[in-house]
Design goal:
It contains 14 helices and twelve strands. By secondary structure, it is an alpha+beta fold. It has one domain: Cytochrome p450 (Orthogonal Bundle). A five-stranded mixed β-sheet has the order 1-2-8-5-3. Strands 4-12-9 form a three-stranded antiparallel β-sheet. The protein is globular, with a radius of gyration of 21 Å. The termini are far apart. The structure holds protoporphyrin IX containing FE (HEM). Protoporphyrin IX containing FE (HEM) binds next to α11 and α14. One of its GO terms (molecular function) is iron ion binding. This is Cytochrome P450.
Length: 380
């Protein structure tokens, strides 16, 4: 039996396969593929994305992908196509990856980050008066907090905005090379890195600059940090603004978890098979693009009760293993998981009571998944 495959659009030249749908409406394509796989009693389906690709969504597949770095390689996956992410730890494969990560991990640990909490609180501006687009506000807030966390606020803010802005624009904007901006970012990093050689600051760059390849890891981790955290924050603010009953610090952790379940910014993880793989009798050849879909897993009715409903109280119970992976898992678990949780927690704790006015919260999958926006809210 061959693996199921969502139908190809008959009006599209066969050579393009699913690429037009993948570009225009990938969530619908994923839902169609998962429907076909479930109907066949399988957890995997194929897509034609210019090269053979498989998408899986079961906890078993997620565990295989995320704990098999020798088989599931990062170099040559989707990240390699995005200049922002094609570098440093993100595209370093096993066995070198483990060593590179072990050098970066201490700076991003919960304990190390605790020391910057006061600086982050001081950086948070009061929530604006009057109607405010929570998405645009989250974008600026996260950029400023990242500047504080990474550079003690010393990175040229206009340059940081210029560097990060294309990430949230529709394709192909995030795929364009932008050599002038990258050169300016490198000069700014060099200036700030040199300053830390003589005097340390309470920031991430002080830890990063001591590692080989620090400039690349600083740049790619910043890119990985910004949109993901912005989108999670925007959705969390929108959720709080709709639900006054959730606007207490005790509720915030469950709100964040539920936002990351329903709207995982990392909606799709990608790898490339380094060797042939036999998956329940199906041979997947080396070189196949192997995708895991956090979006599908997080909304799988076999794993979650009422999966499409925003229900923070579900977090009173633990989910099944490998069913919840907003930060991935295994040795490539998100480097910034604790940083993201710190930024989200501190920002929500500082919010005044809000109410929702109007907005479009439909999930829009780009490089990361976020609300279409705008999301208009105001102080209650
Ligand atoms: C809510 C916010 C965030 C979400 C949802 C998120 C999600 C993820 C996911 C799903 C992965 C694994 C991708 C894979 O399968 O390879 C990942 C990896 C990564 N993330 Fe995050 N991320 C967030 C924030 C951050 C922040 C703040 C940083 C800043 C350091 C960051 C840096 C990275 C890096 C460097 C990797 C690659 C790790 C490796 O390959 O060893 N992320 N993130």
């Amino acid at each position: 039996m061959t693996l199921p495959c969502p139908p190809l659009n008959p009006y599209v030249p066969p050579a393009l396969g699913h690429l037009p749908e993948w570009g225009a409406a990938p969530l619908a394509l994923l839902d169609a593929g998962a429907g076909a796989a479930r109907a066949a009693g399988l957890d995997l389906f194929t897509l034609q994305l210019g090269r053979p690709a498989v998408v899986g969504f079961s906890p078993e597949w997620n565990r295989a992908v995320l704990t098999g770095p020798a088989t599931f390689r990062s170099r040559g996956s989707f990240s390699s196509l995005v200049p922002y992410l094609n570098g440093g730890v993100i595209v370093t494969d096993a066995p070198e990856h483990a060593d590179r990560r072990s050098k970066l991990n201490p700076g991003f640990s919960r304990a190390a980050l605790a020391g910057m909490t006061d600086a982050l609180r001081r950086r948070l501006s009061p929530f604006p008066a009057g109607p405010t687009d929570a998405l645009a506000w989250a974008d600026t807030t996260v950029r400023q907090l990242l500047n504080t966390a990474y550079f003690a606020g010393e990175f040229d803010d206009a340059l940081l905005a210029r560097f990060l802005a294309p990430l949230r624009r529709p394709f192909p904007a995030p795929l364009l090379p932008r050599p002038a901006t990258l050169a300016a970012v490198r000069r700014e990093l060099l200036r700030l890195g040199r300053a830390r050689a003589t005097r340390s600051r309470p920031d991430l760059l002080t830890a990063l600059v001591q590692q080989p390849g620090w400039m690349e890891d600083t740049r790619v981790s910043l890119a990985a940090a910004h949109d993901t955290t912005t989108h999670a924050l925007a959705y969390a603010v929108w959720a709080l603004a709709q639900r006054p009953d959730l606007q207490t610090p005790e509720q915030h952790p469950a709100v964040i978890k539920e936002v990351l379940r329903l709207y995982p910014p990392g909606w799709m993880g990608s790898r490339r098979l380094g060797c042939d793989l036999n998956w329940h009798g199906h041979t997947l050849p080396a070189g196949t693009l192997a995708l895991y879909s956090t979006y599908l897993t997080h909304r799988d009715p076999a794993l979650w009760e009422d999966p499409d409903t925003f229900r923070p109280q579900r977090w009173a119970q633990k989910p099944p293993a490998w069913a919840y992976l907003p930060f991935g898992g295994g040795e490539r678990t998100c480097l910034g998981m604790h940083l993201a949780n710190l930024l989200l927690g501190e920002t929500l704790a500082a919010l005044p009571p809000l109410r929702a006015l109007a907005g479009n919260a439909a999930p829009l999958p780009g490089l990361t998944l976020g609300p279409e926006g705008p999301l208009w809210v105001e102080r209650a």
